[in-house]
Amino acid sequence: MIRAEARRREADQRDWLLRGTPPPPWVRWPPPLLLLAITFVQLVTPRTLDLSFLVAAVPPLAALSYGPALTALVGAVVLALLSLPVFELGHPGNSDQLTISFIALLSVLFAWVRSRREAQLVTVRTVAEAAQLAVLPPLQEHVGRVRCAGLYEAAQHETLVGGDFFDVRRGPGGVRALIGDVQGHGLAAVGTVAALLGAFREAVLDRADLEGVAGQLDRRLVVDSADQEHTELFATAVLLEFPDDASVVRIVSCGHPQPLLLRGTEVTELDVPSGAPLGLGIAGLAPPEGLTVPLLDGDLLFGLTDGVCEARDATGTFYPLVERLTAMLKADAAPEDPEGLAERVWADVLDYAGRVRDDVTLMVFAPGPVDKADPEPDRS
């Protein structure tokens, strides 16, 4: 599963001053280079040129990327260069040296504070990544006979888990997949996501059909919201099943955006009957109706959350997923691999909308031949 770690690291390095993240490696080079440049220029220019005011900038630069000990060493080198006549580094007076000494001490303090903050940030991000792996573990490249790829991006930039959820599991009769979106997003939705994923993993093994799986997810939300006054938990979801004994996909939708069938260069939005969202007591309402779609060799299934189709450009026009996806497929003579397709769609969404304001999940499924199915269910 692609969660855009590389993009997040690039953003952290690009906006490290605003984010408070550890600085990129190149930030360590300006302090010594500036000090060498000042010393060299001072040695080759007339003694009347005083550059001592420039060396005062070296300790604060060091504090941006060095620890307190190394920043103190840089400050000491600066004061030593000012004191040694052989370098002829200007003609600073006592007040100038005291001022630069004070700046160097402040720089050491700033470096200590920055180092402590970076250490705390690393700890917080480590815990967040552990929570992410617990709630949304990495998607396996193959589950049974189905090759899987996808991309997940939380709307709240600094969070790694949001309101979208997904999973692919091996059941007794085939591979079952879930893509959904809970009410709200960000950290407030994580508890609901964890509850739904736990219910899905149990239902994959216990329920004979997708309608039963949807009913168990719905019951989970109904029970969780029963004791919470003025709280309505609901989620949209689409469930897919790739049986071991047939080249078909069975789909059940609970108020979720329809999956797409990619066949060659054609993109078809599957007309799955849309049932009520999970959490509204669908057992007492009309139960969701499933749709069975025959599959051919090379067919791909494309699942998504509404963060994709609701992305807008500067004029407020929604992202035309079917048209743009069709154009991508026609532009390439070679078949698109699932992982590359998910990355290309995400890049196209960003090019179109600039940014998205909702959680985004893209998933691509490439079913393999029926005779290559793994008969053993995944009970992890």
TrEMBL record:
- What UniProt keywords are attached to this protein's entry? Hydrolase, Membrane, Transmembrane, Transmembrane helix
Q: Name one GO molecular function term.
A: phosphatase activity
Gene3D superfamilies noted in UniProt: PPM-type phosphatase domain
Question: What InterPro entries does the entry give?
Answer: Bact_Sigma-Reg (IPR052016), PPM-type-like_dom_sf (IPR036457), PPM-type_phosphatase-like_dom (IPR001932)
Protein name per the record:
PPM-type phosphatase domain-containing protein
Q: Which Pfam families match?
A: SpoIIE
The superkingdom of the source organism is: Bacteria
**SUPFAM superfamilies in UniProt:** PP2C-like
Q: Pinpoint the PPM-type phosphatase domain residues.
A: 146-367
TM ranges are 61-86, 98-115
Q: Does the keyword DNA-binding apply?
A: no
